[in-house]
Amino acid sequence: MLENKIGMIFGVANKRSIAWACASACAEHGARQAFTYQGDRLKENVEKLAGELTDSLVVPCDVTDQSEVDAAFAAVNDKYGRLDYLIHSIAFAPREALEGEFVTTTRDAFRTALEISAFSLTQVSLAAAPLMKDGGSIVTMSYYGAEKVVQNYNVMGVAKAALEASTRYLAADLGKQNIRVNAISAGPINTLSARGVKNMGSLLGYVGEKSPLKRNVTAAEVGNTALFLVSDLASGITGETIYVDCGYNIMGI
Ligand code: 0WD
Asked: Is residue 248 flagged as an active site residue?
C-alpha cells in the first residue's frame, strides 16, 4: 500500500510509543521512514528500533529548537528528496501540571505544553509541505481530554483542543497542495507519556469497562488507523479527528 512512499515520524521514545506502532504498520506496507528523536537520552532507543527497518534515517529534533527542525527536514530532503507523509506523535507538559487542579496552571507550564504539544504541528507542517511534491498526509495524535474534562489531564487537554483546531486550519491551508491533515483521538494506552498523567492506571480500568468494546485500545490499532490515513485509501478525508478508542467517546450515561 505504501511502496515508494517516504514517511517522517516524530515521537518514538521506545517500542511502546504510539509513533512506533504507526511506523511499524507503515513499514509492513512498504514505506521507508525517517525518525526524529528528542535529545541524546532517546538516541540509542530510536536508532535501535529504526535499524530494524529498511533504509531508515534517524535525526535529532527537539521541536523547541527551530534549527533542529530545519536540519531534520534538510536531512530528509538530502536522503530521499521527497516526503509523502508525516506522523506527529509528540506532547509534553511539566509533570506538576498533570495533577491537581487546572486552575493552578502556571504561565510557563501553559506555554510549554501548548508549544510542544500543539504549535509543533504547525511548525512541522510548514517545513514538510515543500517536500510533499505530489501531495501528502499529516497525522497527529489527540485525546478525548481536548473536548471533555478528564481529571489530571488539565493543560494537556487545552493543548489537545488547540491541536485539533490546528488540524482543521492546516487542512484548510494545505488542501490546495493536496496535503491532508488529520488527527487520531486515541483511547488511553500505557506508554511513557501516559505514565506522566496521575492515576493513569485507574483511567485505563474505567475506560476499558465503559467503552462499547469493553476493553482498551492497543497502540497497534492506532497504528493501523494511521496507516489508513496516510494511504490513498483515505484520499477524501482531511481536517478530521478520528476516534480510535473502542467507542468510548460515544457513551453518555
Ligand atoms: O494514552 C496515551 N498514551 C495517549 C497518547 C492517548 C491519546 C493520545 N496520545 C498522544 C500523546 O499525547 C502524544 O501526542 O500520542 C502522542 C504519543 O504519545 P505516546 O506514544 O503515548 O508517548 P511516548 O512514547 O512517551 O512519546 C511521546 C514523545 C516523547 O517521549 P517522552 O516520554 O520522552 O517525553 O514525544 C516526544 C518524546 O519523544 N517529545 C518531543 N519531541 C520533540 N521535541 C518533545 C520535544 N520538545 N517533547 C516530547
From this structure: no
